[in-house]
Each structure stands twice: as structure tokens, then as C-alpha cells.
Amino acid sequence: MKKFILMIVLLAVSVLVLAACGTDDEKASEGTEDQGYKLVNEGKFTFAASGLYKPFSFEEDGTLTGFDIEIGNALAEKMGLEANPVTNPFETILQGLVGNKFDAIIGSMAYTKERAKQADFTEPYYYSGGMIFVAKNNNEITSPEDLNGKKIGVVAQSTYEEPAKELSDDIQYYSSDVVALKDLTVKDRLDAVITADIVGYEAIENGFEIKEVDKPMWVEQPSVAVNKENPELTKALDEALQKMIDDGTYEEISNKWFGRNLLDIDLEGVELLE
């Protein structure tokens, strides 16, 4: 009789343990279903960047890091997901998003009306200006008009490509802005590079013998790009970004990389790239 009672007790304990495990599993998976959004990998927020855009996304000691990567990691944390950053060449990154290779692009991709035909975009997570850079000893180019007929370096499929084409018919394409800026210091390689002001200033701080020309030609709005078939994820990311701004997480990350808040900018009278 005692053995029978012991078996009943053990069976009851087993049922309770299994039930508890089942509850934990349900809690682990209920997040994305309750929010209504889909993920490429369950429980993970997989986001892509080029990995060639220092200080926004780059590899250091075999680890992907940078401002964009830390923003993506923080967004994942706010949504209760595991961060899973991956790399993809910028030239094909939108195609990768449309093809469901990853959930989002957090790779300093500026919102434009043309890109919005292929993907949805969150609110901007920083602002930057499109600026011309030349070699430090170049005194011939002092304005955009001086680029007529000059060789301009840009990253293919970036927001700088079309403005470069409007200024010159001699365009040199790169997969990395850093490499393009470095080529400015090589004699007869390039006349100018058009890229984000932040990237150019970072290169100057790292010893590149280059300088900016005039002032930014426009201000662009880098945002998180999301598959159009996943609007619930766009909404969740906007909510997570706002939480980061409200609790100081965003400012902490921005100050770490740039010593200032990249969202703290006076946009009155400024031309926004669209």
C-alpha cells in the first residue's frame, strides 16, 4: 500500500514539473505571437548591417560592433528578444530583407521615398548630413559646383550615389566608405568622396589626411528598415526605440560612440533627404 501511495505522489510531482516546463515554454514563445510579428529565427531579432561602416558597424577582434549594432542589441532587449546581428553587402541588403534573410536592416540606411517602395521604415534613430570630403591638400574643390568632371567615390546603392551622378559623370564605386576616404589620400586616385559627415569626421580623428568641403548638402534620416509584410514588427521597433529614448539608453549609446546625442539636432529650415 505504501509503495502504491509513493507511486501516486511521484506521478503527481512529475505532472506538476511537466506543467511548469510547459508554462515556461509557452512564455518563451508567446511574445512574438501576442505582438503579431514574424521573426526569421524564433526568439531572436536578426538584423543586418554591412559591417564595413566604421564607427556604425565593423568587426573588432572578430566581433561585430559599432553604434548601429549596439542600437540593434538594445532594441532586441527592449522587445525581450535575443539580438542576432549579421552582415550583408550594402549593395544587396534591401534584397536580403525582401527575401526574408533577416528581420530588419539596422545599417545606417536612410529613409527615402524610393526605398519606401521596397520596405517599411521606423522613425529615424539618428540624423546625419551628406557631405563632400577631399584630400587635405586639395584647394581646388571648395563647393559642390567644383566637382563637375571630377572623379567622385561613393558606396554603390547609397543615398550619395544619385547626388554624385548629378555633380559628375565620373563615379568610382566602393563597398566601404572608409576605403573610399582612404583613397582620397592616394595621388590621382580620387578627387572627392560623398558620405555621411559623421563618418568623414571619424576618419579625420583617426588620422586620415582629408577635410570637409563647405557644409552638409542635406540631412538624412537613417531608420530601421523592415519587410513590408511585417508591419507589426515596425510598430514594435518604434515602441522599443521610444523606450530607449525615454529611459536614457539611446543617449548613453550615442554618447559612447560620438560624444553627443545624434537625435539632438535643430531641423528647422534644414533640407531633409527624401
Short description:
The protein contains 8 helices and 13 strands.
Folded structure, characterized:
This protein is α/β, with parallel strands linked by helices and about 270 residues long. The protein has 2 domains: about 45-125 and about 220-260, Periplasmic binding protein-like II (D-Maltodextrin-Binding Protein, domain 2, 3-Layer(aba) Sandwich); about 130-220, 3-Layer(aba) Sandwich (D-Maltodextrin-Binding Protein, domain 2), CATH 3.40.190.10. Helix content is about 35%, strand content about 25%. Helix 2 crosses helix 7 (about 230-245) and helix 2 packs antiparallel against helix 8 (about 250-260).
Describe this protein with a few key phrases:
D-Maltodextrin-Binding Protein, domain 2; single chain; alpha/beta; 274 residues
**CATH C-level category of the largest domain:** Alpha Beta
Note the run of SSEs as H and E.
Answer: HEEEEHEHEEEEHEHEHEEHH
Number of strands: 13
Number of self-contained structural domains: 2
Global morphology = globular
Question: Which second-level CATH architecture of the largest domain applies?
Answer: 3-Layer(aba) Sandwich
Helix content: 25-40%
Number of helices: 8
Which structural class best describes the helix and strand composition?
alpha/beta
Report the sheet with the most strands, covering strand number, pairing sense and barrel closure: 5 strands, mixed
Oligomer: single chain
